Amino acid sequence: MKRTFTEGLGRKELAEIKACTQCRECLRYCPVQEVTGRVEISPSEKIRIYRDFIERTESLRALITGRDIPEQLLKDFTRAVFECTTCGVCGEVCPAGIDTQRLWPLLRREMVKRGLGPVGGQAEMPEVIRNTGNPYNQPPSERYRPWFPDETEIAEKAEVAYYVGCTGAYQAQPMVRGDVLILKAIGIEFTMLKEEEEVCCGFPLFITGQHELLEGLVKRLVDAYKNKGVKELVCSCPCCVNMMAKDWPFYYGKELPFKIVHVTQYALKAIKTGKLRIDHGLEERLIYHDPCYLSRGVGVIKEPRDVLRSIPGVELIEFDRWGRLSRCCGAGGAARKVFHDNAVAIARLSIDEACHRGADRLVLSCPACYEKVNDAMKDYPKKVRIVDIMELLSEIIYGQNA
Q1: What is the rounded CA–CA span in Å between residue 237 and residue 167?
Q2: Which of 49, 96, 278, 391 could cross-link with 178 by S-S, CB 3.0 to 4.6 Å?
């Protein structure tokens, strides 16, 4: 019996697919629309097409006219749903309240189960992660060593643990180095898994609809931290934090034995309690970019700004769209692995606006943003200094050569 288009979706997702009114409000905010203008891959059109798939195969009409869907239509839909950055801003502005940041990965999973997805190099990720523990096919032995600060002690067991994440470890090393330096400055005892033990959080597999390895990865990581007595797991990657907070409990099978904390939340608490002191100022205009899975994903919006405002002399300015309406950096949803030109064009929109607003630095808090925005600035006439929040704090506290 052929797989139906509804069996992989819950009642919430089915209700959302029916709820779309085709008002196209989402087109005004979609970053892929901004750089391609292709309405046929817009959020509302994807939902219309998927609803049509259900109608063609599971309705009374299907019994009369047949249930076949042209193969090319299925392939075009698959490409459209994987070209999305899954940033979720379409759902944020949706009058019907459709949670697209959660819906798109599930529709991707459906196309994977049908043998139509994922696309391009995304298909190699399960095997690569199985072999190396990360989606970049990099050796585990290089996960920490190239960037880890000298003379930093890691406890064998502690109530606080730091999870680096794959993108930070291999693509945005100044960012994770800054994280560790700030934890060191706070003066708390913290632990980490060994390089070969800290594997992918599972987000790249979840977001591309390839879920087979997820339960094993999650249980391996959660049990490893549990055995170290961890009560708080600190991480700076928004995609990891989102995956840990929202999906780890499902794949683990019960409530996590520790709390998930974004590094800006942890740093702000330390600043407020006096454990982290920022004595030196910075006379600069900073513009902060909200990562999609930090702002819309887990609602961490205020904390990064409060950390930046704690730096004496800083003037914090904003993009036109910020917080829950922020524009994607272009790197999201693993789309950058296949649709590189889209990702670069989207990232340059943020560079353009940061320059237009006279920012001295564009401040990020996501390793995917860090990697892609830096990449987008190559061979681009407009330039702005890019820095991660913890990288910036560590520069101020320890000096430029931290």
Answers
A1: 8
A2: 391
